[in-house]
Design goal:
The chain has 18 helices and no strands. By secondary structure, the chain is mainly α.
Length: 305
């Protein structure tokens, strides 16, 4: 089994990152720009909504804006999370060398950096329809509350699902100017998906989290983690199926979900619960799961409009 030092992605200084000055490396790592998986996972729900609404080609610009917004706001979220969690991060092998936890980046600089990233998000926000703007602003409170959830609930992954899926609620009205049931089903499916993949991610830290007193769904599920993850992935597929059916009520439309169903089955079927490296690899594979759902939504949405 891989030891923690083999899987500490937050402290790597390899490739181009290793050629940069220390301050630049710290700021890139603080916002996780060197690890774009989080930005992809934040981006996909909004892209699904735009695609399933049938506006992916007509409003291709929205996909670009959502991509920029996902990168900036995921970065801002990481900075905020590291500010709030700096004491906990020092107790976990995978995170103790993060820039704020290690002291390489001061709190003053971290807060300034957070503000700068939020300003980029504001630029994206003003490009959207008024309804989409209001829905986007409604996410501020749950986003701000997320870092504290691991202290008060065994299911912080559920809260992450609420905030990381929010773009599905914003993307649809941004593309159409309307609020429709399909976007709610997409959002609900995304929440289940996020709980599943973030439980996979949390398997890396079960032992350290227990020592630090950090709660997680991986710890709550224990030896039943694989079955629990499978249940959340099945729920996600069912909810996405309802979203697709609400746009195109034909069995043929549901077949579009077959590739992502096979991918999620692969994730769960081969998951080695006690192998952190395997958990990290399968978590990262969800960027492809997001792409497969996007393609399903694109096919159904385009054919229905």
């Amino acid at each position: 089994m891989a030891v923690p030092s083999d899987i500490v992605p937050d402290t790597e200084h390899r490739g181009l990152l290793g050629l940069l000055p220390q301050r630049a490396r710290d700021l890139i790592q603080l916002a996780r720009f060197d690890r774009p998986i989080g930005a992809w996972l934040l981006f996909w729900p909004g892209a699904w909504a735009i695609a399933l609404s049938g506006q992916a080609f007509a409003r291709w610009d929205l996909l670009l804006w959502f991509g920029l917004g996902a990168a900036a706001m995921r970065g801002a979220g990481c900075v905020y999370n590291d500010i709030v969690d700096r004491e906990l991060d020092r107790k976990v092998a995978r995170t103790r060398e993060r820039p704020v936890a290690s002291g390489r980046v001061s709190l003053a600089l971290a807060w300034t950096y957070l503000l700068a990233l939020c300003l980029v998000g504001l630029v994206v926000l003003v490009q959207l329809d008024r309804t989409a703007v209001m829905l986007a602003l409604a996410s501020v409170v749950p986003v701000a509350a997320y870092p504290f959830m691991k202290r008060i609930t065994w299911w912080p992954q559920a809260w992450l699902g609420i905030v990381f899926s929010w773009a599905a609620l914003v993307g649809w009205p941004a593309a159409t100017g309307r609020i429709e049931p399909a976007m709610v089903w997409l959002y609900a499916g995304s929440i289940a998906w996020v709980i599943g993949y973030d439980t996979v991610y949390a398997l890396q830290d079960v032992e350290d989290d227990a020592l630090a007193g950090v709660k997680s769904s991986a710890r709550a599920l224990g030896r039943h983690a694989r079955a629990g993850i499978a249940c959340f992935y099945i729920a996600a597929l069912l909810l996405w199926g309802i979203a697709i059916w609400s746009v195109r009520p034909e069995a043929l439309g549901l077949i579009a979900l077959a590739p992502v169903a096979a991918h999620l089955l692969w994730q769960v079927g081969g998951l080695r619960r006690e192998d952190p490296a395997d958990a990290l690899a399968r978590f990262r594979a969800n960027r492809f799961a997001g792409l497969l759902i996007f393609l399903a939504c694109l096919v159904v949405g385009t054919a229905s409009h």
